[in-house]
C-alpha cells in the first residue's frame, strides 16, 4: 500500500500566476493616488459620459 501523493511544483504555479500579479500591481500603482486621497480624477470627456448616463435614464 503505497501512498500516491503528488508533490506540488511551486515554480510552475508561480510562473502561471506571475502575469496576473504584475497586472494587478500595475493597476494598483495607477489608481493608488485616487485610493489614498479619496479623490477621483475627472478627464476631459467625463462630462460627455455623465450626459450620456443622464440621457439614457430619461
Please compute the radius of gyration using only Cα atoms. Answer: 23 Å
**Low-confidence runs:** none
- Strand residue content: under 5%
Q: Looking at the chains present, what oligomeric state does this protein adopt?
A: single chain
The main β sheet shows up as: none
Helix and strand composition category:
mainly alpha
Helical percent range?
A: 55-70%
User: Averaged pLDDT, please?
Assistant: 86
Topology (elements, then pairings):
Elements: H1 10-37, H2 46-57
Short description:
The chain is mainly α and 58 residues long. It has helices at 10-37, 46-57.
Structural overview:
This protein has 2 helices and no strands. The protein has helices spanning 10-37, 46-57. The protein has 58 residues and is an all-alpha fold. 0% of the residues are buried. 69% of the residues lie in helices and 0% in strands. The termini are far apart. It is elongated, with a radius of gyration of 23 Å. The model has no long low-confidence stretch (mean pLDDT 86).
Amino acid at each position: 500500500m503505497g501512498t500516491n501523493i503528488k508533490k506540488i511544483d511551486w515554480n510552475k504555479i508561480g510562473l502561471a500566476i506571475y502575469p496576473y500579479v504584475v497586472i494587478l500591481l500595475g493597476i494598483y500603482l495607477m489608481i493608488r493616488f485616487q485610493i489614498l486621497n479619496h479623490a477621483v480624477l475627472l478627464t476631459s470627456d467625463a462630462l460627455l459620459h455623465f450626459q450620456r448616463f443622464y440621457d439614457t435614464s430619461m
